[in-house]
C-alpha cells in the first residue's frame, strides 16, 4: 500500500496562499498577472487566492500598473504591512537596543536604552530599574509608531538560552537583570517572546541578509569583546543539547599558557582573540589607539588593514594565526566548508583578515574551508532578532485558514 498522501483542496489552497504571500514579501507589490507568472497558477486560482487573502486582511490593492490601466490586472496587490508588528531586542551588559517592524519587515521605530542603576519608583518591588526602563521605552516606541499590539518579540542576549525551557541560564558573568527582563517581557507584552543567544542571531542575519546567503552550512565565528560561534548546518541553526553549541571562547588552544575552566575562559580561545587580547597584541606590535576602550580593538584592526607597513602586516598575520585555531577546530568537527568572521573585530578586519585566516587555515586543516568576512551592517544581532520574529509571525499568519 502506498504511503503517499494526496493533498486536499484545502491544503493546496493554503500552500498557494503562502507562496503568494512570500512572493509579495520578497518582491513587493505585484499585479495578478505577475503572480500568475511567478506561481504558475491559473487566472481563476490567482483571483480566488487574492480574494481569500484580502478577506483575511493580509493583502490589499495598493495601486495600478502603468502599462495595464484598462483591465482588471491593472490592479497592484501588496502585503498589508500593518497587519502585524514584531519587536527585536539586543540585550548587552551596557544596555539594550530595540526595534519594531511591520509584517513587511520595515522598521517603524528604534531606540537605545543605556544601562541605568537609578531607582525607579514606577518599577515593581525587586525589579531592576533597567527592566522598567526597557519596558517603558518599548511601550512608548510602539505608541509613537501607532503599534497597538505586538505579534512576536525576539530577544538576543549573551549567555546560554536553554532550548528546553526557553530561559536564560544563570551565569555569574552576566547581570541578573537580563533574566528579569526576559521574565518581565513574557509577563507583560502579551505576545510570544523568543530568546536566542546573540551570536546565533548574528549568524541568522548573515545567512539571510549577508555574506552567506548562498550557503546552507557554515560557522560564524564571532570576534568582539567576547568570542563565540553560530553553527548553521543544512539551513538549520544548531544550538546543542544545552544551548551551548559554539562556545568557542572555552576552546583549549596553544598559546594561552593555561587551560580554561568551567567558569573562566581566559585559558581558552577567548584569551587569544577577545577584544582585550587583540588590544594587547596590537600594542605589542607598536599599534595604539587612544579612543574609548570598548571600541579600541575594532579600530586597531580596521586601521591595520588600511596600512602597508611591516608592523601592521605582522599584527594582522599573528591575529589571523590565532583566529585560525578556532576556525580549524570548527572545520575539524563540523566540516562546514565556510567560516564567516563576524563581530566587531571580524567585520573591521574585512577581506584582508579573512584572506589571512584562510591561508593559515589551509596549513592547519586538510579540509577545503572558505573564510569570508561578515557583511551585515548596523547591528547584526538586532537584524537577526527581526528576521527571527518576522519568520515566526509570518509562519503563523501566512498559514491561517481563511
Automatic annotation (TrEMBL):
It comes from the Bacteria. Coiled coil: none annotated. Pfam families: ROK. PANTHER family: BIFUNCTIONAL UDP-N-ACETYLGLUCOSAMINE 2-EPIMERASE_N-ACETYLMANNOSAMINE KINASE, ROK (REPRESSOR, ORF, KINASE) FAMILY. Belongs to the ROK (NagC/XylR) family. This is ROK family protein. It comes from Streptomyces sedi. The lineage of its organism: Bacteria, Bacillati, Actinomycetota, Actinomycetes, Kitasatosporales.
Amino acid at each position: 500500500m502506498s504511503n503517499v498522501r494526496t493533498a486536499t483542496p484545502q491544503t493546496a489552497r493554503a500552500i498557494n496562499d503562502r507562496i503568494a504571500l512570500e512572493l509579495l514579501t520578497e518582491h513587493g507589490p505585484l499585479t495578478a498577472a505577475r503572480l500568475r507568472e511567478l506561481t504558475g497558477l491559473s487566472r481563476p486560482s490567482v483571483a480566488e487566492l487574492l480574494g481569500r487573502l484580502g478577506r483575511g486582511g493580509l493583502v490589499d490593492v495598493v495601486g495600478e500598473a502603468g502599462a495595464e490601466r484598462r483591465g482588471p490586472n491593472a490592479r497592484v496587490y501588496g502585503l498589508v504591512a500593518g497587519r502585524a508588528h514584531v519587536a527585536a531586542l539586543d540585550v548587552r551588559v551596557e544596555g539594550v537596543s530595540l526595534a519594531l517592524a511591520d509584517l513587511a519587515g520595515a522598521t517603524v521605530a528604534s531606540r537605545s536604552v543605556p544601562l541605568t542603576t537609578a531607582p525607579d519608583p514606577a518599577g515593581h518591588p525587586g525589579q531592576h530599574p533597567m527592566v522598567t526602563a526597557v519596558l517603558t521605552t518599548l511601550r512608548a516606541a510602539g505608541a509613537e509608531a501607532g503599534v497597538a499590539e505586538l505579534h512576536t518579540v525576539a530577544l538576543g542576549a549573551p549567555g546560554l538560552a536553554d532550548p528546553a525551557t526557553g530561559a536564560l541560564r544563570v551565569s555569574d558573568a552576566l547581570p541578573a537583570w537580563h533574566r528579569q527582563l526576559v521574565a518581565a517581557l513574557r509577563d507583560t507584552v502579551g505576545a510570544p517572546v523568543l530568546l536566542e543567544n546573540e551570536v546565533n542571531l548574528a549568524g541568522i542575519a548573515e545567512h539571510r541578509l549577508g555574506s552567506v546567503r548562498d550557503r546552507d552550512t557554515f560557522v560564524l565565528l564571532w570576534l568582539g569583546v567576547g568570542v563565540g560561534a553560530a553553527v548553521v548546518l543544512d539551513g538549520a541553526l544548531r544550538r546543542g543539547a544545552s544551548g551551548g553549541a559554539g562556545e568557542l571562547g572555552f576552546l583549549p588552544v596553544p598559546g594561552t599558557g593555561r587551560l580554561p575552566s568551567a567558569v573562566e575562559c581566559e585559558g581558552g580561545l577567548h584569551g587569544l582573540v577577545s577584544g582585550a587580547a587583540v588590544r594587547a597584541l596590537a600594542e605589542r606590535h607598536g599599534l595604539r589607539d587612544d579612543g574609548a576602550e570598548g571600541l579600541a580593538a575594532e579600530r586597531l584592526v580596521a586601521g591595520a588593514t588600511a596600512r602597508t607597513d611591516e608592523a601592521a602586516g605582522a599584527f594582522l598575520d599573528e591575529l589571523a594565526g590565532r583566529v585560525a585555531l578556532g576556525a580549524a577546530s570548527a572545520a575539524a568537527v563540523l566540516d562546514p566548508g565556510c567560516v564567516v568572521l563576524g563581530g566587531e573585530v571580524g567585520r573591521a578586519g574585512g577581506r584582508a583578515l579573512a584572506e589571512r585566516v584562510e591561508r593559515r587555515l589551509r596549513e592547519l586543516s586538510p579540509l577545503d574551508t572558505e573564510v569570508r568576512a561578515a557583511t551585515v551592517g548596523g547591528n547584526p544581532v538586532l537584524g537577526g532578532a527581526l528576521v527571527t520574529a518576522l519568520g515566526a509571525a509570518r509562519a503563523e499568519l501566512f498559514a491561517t485558514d481563511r
